[in-house]
């Protein structure tokens, strides 16, 4: 209509002509539409602002967050928004959260090796940090060969306290991850108390080895080995490795070398511990969850005298 208004002498003549041809458009309808284009509604302005914030949260978190976590993060930042609004705008932006793939078994047990007892019996709930650590490792296909990555996770906060990467899956791989966990806690002045910490793993030969058992005993850590062939055994550790493969390894492949995997893993672990929201611990990062725990436990107790 804007293109032909000068030719026909304005909007009204065009509307009359269209009405005569059974296409009824009132001049007021045209002017209202024109005004909406020139002055966007409050909702459209708000939507545009939210689209930018949603895209920022999505991009800065490895492009793996779905609507629930983006909604949580926006509200943590002080942007009050409904979850259904986030879902609608994500559809408009064409972005979705990451979907986990199938589990790949990398651990091979040693039937001849002696095994520690199962001290957890599937009960992974810990009342404080440094009460229960779970361990496992996975593999990453690289151009230079297979890279094995081992993790140690504190079940209280789901924090990755130690990890290591190597082209060999011998016992040293899991020992290095354990050493990092011990060093990490010491550096933060939160060392474990000998006799209070359990190290739980599956029955892989690396975890039933004499070297690891000797190392754990020297540190005052109780060894625990899960039952063989149990699909629910060490589920928390398998969940962490599933996130690692889904959020980092698969989207960034192909991988070229051990050093590339190590650098990327270090960056992902830092994000996972300090910024990633975990629904199982109240939609906060593990480091924040632990900090809240220590803050609460050191608050002075209020007593009332009668």
From TrEMBL:
Molecular functions per Gene Ontology: nucleic acid binding
Domain Integrase catalytic as annotated: residue spans: 125-293
Gene Ontology BP terms: DNA integration
Pfam families named among the record's database cross-references: HTH_21, rve, rve_2
UniProt cross-references to InterPro entries, sorted A to Z: HTH-like_dom, Integrase_cat-core, RNaseH-like_sf, RNaseH_sf, Transpos_IS3, Transposase_IS3/IS150/IS904
Classification via PROSITE patterns: INTEGRASE
UniProt-listed NCBIfam families: transpos_IS3
Function noted in UniProt: Involved in the transposition of the insertion sequence.
Name of this chain's protein: Transposase
Organism: Streptomyces canus
Higher taxonomy: Bacteria, Bacillati, Actinomycetota, Actinomycetes, Kitasatosporales
């Amino acid at each position: 209509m804007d293109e032909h208004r000068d030719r026909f002498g304005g909007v009204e003549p065009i509307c009359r002509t269209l009405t005569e041809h059974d296409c009824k458009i009132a001049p007021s309808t045209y002017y209202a539409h024109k005004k909406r284009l020139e002055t966007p509604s409050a909702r459209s302005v708000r939507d545009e602002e939210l689209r930018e914030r949603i895209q920022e949260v999505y991009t800065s978190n490895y492009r793996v967050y779905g609507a629930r976590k983006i909604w949580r993060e926006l509200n943590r930042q002080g942007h009050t928004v409904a979850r259904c609004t986030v879902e609608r705008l994500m559809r408009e932006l064409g972005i979705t959260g990451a979907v986990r793939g199938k589990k790949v078994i990398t651990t091979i047990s040693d039937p001849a090796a002696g095994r520690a007892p199962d001290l957890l019996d599937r009960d992974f709930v810990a009342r404080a940090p440094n009460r229960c650590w779970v361990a496992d490792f996975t593999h990453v296909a690289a151009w230079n060969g297979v890279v094995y990555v081992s993790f140690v996770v504190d079940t209280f906060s789901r924090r990755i306290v130690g990890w290591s990467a190597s082209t060999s899956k011998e016992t040293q791989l899991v020992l290095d991850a354990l050493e990092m966990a011990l060093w990490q806690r010491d550096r933060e002045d939160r060392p474990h108390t000998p006799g209070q910490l359990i190290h739980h793993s599956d029955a892989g030969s690396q975890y039933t080895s004499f070297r690891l058992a000797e190392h754990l005993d020297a540190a005052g850590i109780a060894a625990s080995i899960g039952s063989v062939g149990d699909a629910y055994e060490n589920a928390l550790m398998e969940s962490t490795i599933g996130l690692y493969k889904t959020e980092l390894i698969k989207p960034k492949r192909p991988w070229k070398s051990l050093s590339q995997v190590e650098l990327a893993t270090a960056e992902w672990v830092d994000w996972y511990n300090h910024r990633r929201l975990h629904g199982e611990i109240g939609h906060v990062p593990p480091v924040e969850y632990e900090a809240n725990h220590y803050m609460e436990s050191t608050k002075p107790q209020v007593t009332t005298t009668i």
